[in-house]
Amino acid sequence: MRLLITAGPTREPIDPVRFLSNRSSGRMGYALAEAACEAGHVVVLISGPVTLSAPEGVTLIKVETAREMFDAVQTHLSGCDAAIFSAAVADYRPVNVVAQKLKKTADKLTLELERTEDILGSARSKLGFQGFLVGFAAETENLIVHAQEKLERKGCDMIVANDVSQSGIGFDSAENEVTLCLPGGRTIHLPRQSKTALARELIACISSSIQPPESSIQ
Ligand code: CTP
Fold first, then answer.
1. C-alpha distance across the termini of the chain, in Å
2. For residue 165, how far is its CA from the centre of ligand 1 (angstroms)?
């Protein structure tokens, strides 16, 4: 199958030398791209700034901002059988990006922020994507309730729910433990393991959801 994966953080500029961003390392998205490639799928990886190198065989598209990520997804989404949105896209960006470096003249500085494009939330409605749609949910409380709500609101086929209140998993860690939330309130728990092992399991789950094993075809 043909897969689109978003990964890493985005950077939203404040001035020529500063930006708003987050702690995403991109490891989960890159591990998914590698696992998908290993399994013989064609992969387009749209990545924010990270220090990782792209797995061999993957088409890498580098972006910085949420807007650039949205544009790249819009260009590459059609024709994909599945899309996995693992990027930690900034939810807000500064309204005004100043052309020169901000000087520290005042004691207080207020930044006005506006919402960025919701890329996952646009996949069905604005971009007309009809393939298998996978989102991520990073939560600190009521993990499954929030993830199920996100599944319905964004028209996803699967949400990979991450409890980011636990240390050592998720954001900027080598390991992860997730619960897959599926339509109809179904869940599958994938226990703590390396992001590489978890990525293989996730890719296997997604491919079997799209192409059920022959034995299960009536
Ligand atoms: N996402 C996206 N574009 C954004 C923000 C998020 O594509 N501008 C995607 C992420 O890649 C992830 C999912 O949406 O797959 C996360 O959904 P979101 O509603 O942003 O979840 P949280 O970041 O957990 O935010 P909140 O719970 O505050 O709504």
1. 22
2. 17
Range from 99-103, 145-149, 166-170, 172-176 carrying the lowest mean pLDDT: 166-170
Asked if 80 contacts 4 with a C-beta cutoff of 8 angstroms, the reply is yes
CA of 13 to the centre of ligand 1 (A): 19
pLDDT in tens, 71-86: 999 999 999 999 999 9
- Strand 132-139 to strand 158-163: parallel, antiparallel, or no bridges (unpaired)? parallel
- Indicate the pTM of the whole model: 0.94
189 inside domain: yes
For residue 22, indicate whether it is catalytic: yes
CA 85 / ligand 1 centre spacing (Å): 9
Mean pLDDT of the chain: 94
Ligand 1 atom closest to residue 117's alpha carbon, by position in its atom list? 8
Assigned domain for 8 exists: yes
Residues contacting ligand 1 via CB (< 6 Å): 6, 66, 85, 87, 89, 91, 116-120, 135-138, 150
- Domain residues for the domain of 182 are 2-93+114-209
83 DSSP β-pair partners: 4, 133
Residues 158-201 have pLDDT tens digits of 999 998 888 777 676 788 899 999 999 999 999 999 999 999 99
**CA–CA separation, 46 vs 43, rounded Å?**
10
Q: Which of 23, 68, 119, 159 maximizes ligand 1 atoms within 8 Å of its Cβ, making it the mutation to test the pocket?
A: 119
* CATH classification of the domain holding 128: 3.40.50.10300
Q: What span, in angstroms and rounded, lies between the C-alpha atoms of 36 and 96?
A: 39
